[in-house]
Amino acid sequence: MKRIFTVVVSLGLLASCGTTKEKKTQDKVSEQTESSTETNVASDASDEENSKIEIIERPHYNPSATILTDLKHTKLEVDFMWEKSQMNGVATLTCSPYFYSTDSLILDAKAMQIHSVKMEGKDLNFKYNDANFLRIKLDKEYSRDEEYTVVIEYIAKPEEKLEGGSSAISSDKGLYFINPKGENEMQMPHIWTQGETEASSVWFPTIDRPNQNTTQEIFITVEDKYKTLSNGKFISATKNADGTRTDYWKQDLPHVPYLFMMAVGEFAVVKDTYTKPDGTVIPLHYYVEPEWEEHAQAIFGETPRMIEYFSELLGVDYKWDKYHQVVVREYVSGAMENTGAVVFGDFVYQTKRELIDDNNHAIIAHELFHHWFGNLVTCESWANLPLNEAFANYSQYLWDEEFSGRDHADYVAEKEADGYFQSSKQMGYHDMIWFDYEDKEDMFDAHSYNKGGRILHMLRYYLGDDAFFEGLKKYLNDNAFQPVEIHHLRLAFEEVAGEDLNWFFEQWFLSAYHPKLNISQEVAEGKVTVNINQTQDLEKAPLYKLPLKIGVYANGEKASYDVVVDKNINTFTFDFEGELENIVVDEDRTLLGVFTHKKPREWYVHQYYNAPRYKDREKALTYGSRLQAPAGKQLILDALEDDFWYIRQLAISKLNKLGADKNQEVFEYLNTMATSDENSQVRSTAISTLANDFFKAEFEGNTRTILIDAIEKDSSYLVVSAALNGLTKGTKNDVVKVLKFAKDLEKERSSALKAQLIGIYKNFGDVSNIEFMSDAITSGDISGYDAIGGVLNYASFYQSQDVKTRMEYFYVLERLSNNGGAYVNAVLPMALVNLARAEEAILEDLEKQSQELESAGKSGEATVIQGKMDQEQKYMDKLMLLIENVSG
Ligand SMILES: [Zn+2]
């Protein structure tokens, strides 16, 4: 699963959630302190006090589920009652006792109506009191070498499931009917499912635990106009007498119940293939809404290359029947790796022109990689989730490294690491393999993903590529179709490398936090002593063993030294000849940790030109550009021509250090970059910088021309958006131009641009723009991360309208709260609360006015104000009701 929470965290929008977590952690700490104090008190206390000793419990621990029954085969026959958002199902389950003989079968079955449970046509007794577990009494006691089959007839009623969910997965209804009655003309009616973590049991009875796996067949009966998708191979389509059609999908390889999926709708299906080394052709279909058909290949077209690359890299062929991908609306997460039938949220809908700025290859790679790590080999418990997600996260690095280059991969990895640092600061630190989580959904955090990916990267660099990938191959082959825990991974690497790796797994997977290193050096004649101190709090973090490379640059030469940092205070001395030019600790730039390394700014300048990694150049530009000497300024100018786009973008932000006498030169640079840099991020930064710093005095005219040219001619929506925004910083006349351009651009199919237009209308528009804004925000045209800014800007504009307009467009808020999807849901509650606060202020103000008028004896005018208050109060009541429903 690809979660969407980091952006929300980085925007600080989950503040309330973060606070809750913080509190939980504090509670835990105080509990521990209390119990240790009490133990001491008890030992000194009198007998009378001793009799009051409280019971001390073992720490909370989430084990893997005890396996009573081995689920072997699942056959489902389903059809839908769209009007009621319900599903008729017949589940035929083949099972056997796992070890101990038993006459009972306990299944997870949530919010269902169970009609019957039968074995060979005879009714079995069952209990289904709590609408959670279906407890079946078998006809006799079975032993583990006996199989039996039960047939369950039921109705799935997902709307009756009490909702849970998490920051990663915003709901756990399992089965979702989107616009089932076709009431919203803008949206295609369709159905999709979401199993992870344990929500598959909302749509079929199963043992909904990650340490089960089962083969699968499913018969889906639909009206003939619909396409269906499920796991496994498409076997047949049969027309029924009543005009419906039954599609039959079958998967002979076992997988975990949370990976089961279905999607139904009038999708367009774009067909692609991947040919395995043995010549087998694997179908790859892209299921999209018909209007997206022409873009499907551009969105998903790298998939065959990814399968080929990952299969080769891992030395383990893609095992499953096919690899189809489907885009759905109102999805509750980012994407989900259902075996051979991956679901994506609508943020992946991008036109070819939008794909110039950004693509979702990383997410496509992430879900694909799960087909080895997660689907072929599955974590046995949610506490072991990093065995799925750390690998999927790391696949994004592997893909970037191969196809976009090491700089790009390192740049994204750095952002991933920052995601971990930021979010764990807010949400708290815990062991990677987190046995004492409070809610299994909490596992889907920046530890399992971001930190997990970085740990694997360190392990790869420690072992070397040969041992690392050989270890992964062994792990996959030894544990295929089996549940695993973290030790399986360690044992595979240990066997391949012939080396004990407990120390590595202990400190990174089974402990919390990360290293903090304080680095300094003392230089004497021909010798340099590098001091590396571990300064992390050893109460909560381990004292790490860190094998590192130190690069010593002197006299135009570099020497690399392998060292091991394993004490709190570490000292390493190296000889050098001539002039010492730089020291780089962690030359490979793989270590996840916080460093403080004070070194001369001249060294950073040297580092920019001589150290090979992205991070070397990024740090060099950040610190070296502070050097007042000409070399510092030259560094900025050279970085404008760096091969890697982000360094060029960063260099633009340093141009202000060049001083006013360089203005003409800087303007020329920005002009060139704004018009001809190959990367649209760089062009848009150059445009924004021109608008901020040069849209005045002697540069005003030329800047205006550059901005207008960009709006009219640049192929990138990102650049067009930046130029529009930039032009608003000019004269009143420029703003008029912007509004005219905006009007023309309303028809463009770009989520980012539409979100930008909402921002512009919020600041410069009027009530005549609300129609477009309302359409854009409710039609699904603004999706993914853009929806977050879109909703906030819309709400702010909406609040500034009069009460009549607010009432008229209240349906927009209602629609967003009903059908928002994961991104909207992340910010809507806060936006609504802000609206209520603003309204409260309006009401208080009117109340005050009315009282003042009353006491001044102006009761006529007071009555007018009270009339206004009534209107506002009506709106407020509606708003409060909506807030109650949303938070309800
Ligand atoms: Zn994932």
UniProtKB/TrEMBL annotation:
Residues 73-259 form the Aminopeptidase N-like N-terminal domain. GO terms for biological process: peptide catabolic process. Residues 836-863 form a coiled coil. The keyword Zinc does not apply. The keyword Protein biosynthesis does not apply. GO terms for molecular function: metalloaminopeptidase activity; peptide binding; zinc ion binding. Residues 22-31 have a biased composition (Basic and acidic residues). Residues 22-49 are annotated as: Disordered. GO terms for cellular component: cytoplasm; extracellular space; membrane. Keywords: Coiled coil. InterPro entries: Aminopeptidase_N-like_N, Aminopeptidase_N-like_N_sf, ARM-like, ARM-type_fold, Peptidase_M1_aminopeptidases, Peptidase_M1_dom, Peptidase_M4/M1_CTD_sf. Residues 302-508 form the Peptidase M1 membrane alanine aminopeptidase domain. It holds the Pfam family Peptidase_M1_N. Residues 32-43 have a biased composition (Polar residues). This is Uncharacterized protein. It comes from Brumimicrobium oceani.
